[in-house]
């Protein structure tokens, strides 16, 4: 008869449980917010740029093919904008740019924003912020809660993503 050695860990009551710290949501720095929107727009503009490049490569004799490839590129960019700026943040609180910079969009009361609020923020709030010659974006740098005009319109705020927000 042979004895088997089993690797048994400490009893359940002796194991230490890792405590999860809940940190308060920290307002996002203005520079990171600028970087996030820049990443989002680079993604969208690259779709249009690639389709324009393809249409130019199809060249002179293929004028109809060139026009249709540009049209397809614009349609794809609009679909990507709806997904990146509306659906994705509505479901996760993140755009591609927010994900890349470690930021998250939350409701002002720290709830999930939802798709309707995300569309309001990006497709109504952003144009209004642009129409004020960019002052709607700039007030986020000076507002104590870091909220721009588009955030005030939609009832949102942008915070640094952290363990407290990954529930």
Secondary-structure topology with pairs:
Elements: H1 30-58, H2 63-92, H3 96-101, E1 103-107, H4 114-131, H5 135-142, H6 149-154, E2 156-160
Antiparallel strand pairs: 1-2
Helix pairs in contact: 1-2, 2-4
Catalogue the unreliable spans: 14-22
Please give the alpha-carbon distance between the first and last residues: 51 Å
Mean pLDDT: 83
Q: What proportion of the residues is helical, as a percent range?
A: 55-70%
The backbone outline, from C-alpha atoms, is: elongated
- H and E string: HHHEHHHE
* Main sheet strand line-up: 1-2
Counting DSSP E segments of at least 2 residues, the number of strands comes to 2
Q: Which key terms come to mind for this protein?
A:
elongated; 6 helices; 167 residues; two-stranded antiparallel ribbon; 2 strands
What does this structure look like?
The protein has 167 residues and is mainly alpha-helical. It has one domain. Helix content is 58%, strand content 6%. It has six helices and two strands, in the order αααβαααβ. It has helices spanning 30-58, 63-92, 96-101, 114-131, 135-142, 149-154; strands spanning 103-107, 156-160. α1 packs antiparallel against α2. The chain starts with 29 loop residues before the first helix and ends in a 7-residue tail after the last strand. Mean pLDDT is 83; it is low at 14-22.
Give a short summary of the structure.
With about 170 residues, the chain is mainly α.
């Amino acid at each position: 008869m042979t004895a088997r050695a089993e690797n048994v860990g400490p009893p359940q009551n002796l194991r230490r449980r890792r405590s999860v710290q809940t940190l308060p949501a920290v307002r996002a720095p203005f520079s990171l917010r600028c970087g996030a929107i820049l990443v989002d727009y680079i993604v969208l503009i690259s779709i249009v740029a690639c389709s324009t490049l393809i249409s130019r490569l199809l060249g002179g004799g293929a004028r109809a093919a060139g026009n249709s490839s540009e049209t397809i590129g614009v349609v794809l960019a609009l679909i990507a904008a709806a997904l990146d700026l509306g659906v994705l943040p509505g479901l996760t609180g993140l755009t591609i740019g927010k994900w890349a910079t470690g930021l998250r969009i939350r409701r002002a009361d720290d709830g999930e924003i939802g798709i309707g609020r995300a569309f309001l923020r990006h497709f109504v709030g952003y144009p209004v912020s642009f129409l004020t010659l960019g002052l709607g974006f700039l007030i986020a740098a000076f507002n104590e809660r870091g909220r721009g005009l588009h955030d005030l319109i939609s009832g949102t705020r942008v915070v640094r993503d952290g363990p407290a927000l990954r529930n």
